[in-house]
Amino acid sequence: MIHRWLASLALCLCFAALGPIEHLPLSLAGLLLVAALASMGLALVRGESPFRQHLTAWDEAALSLTVSLGLWLWFARAAPGAP
Question: What pTM, to 2 d.p., does this model score?
Answer without folding.
Answer: 0.86
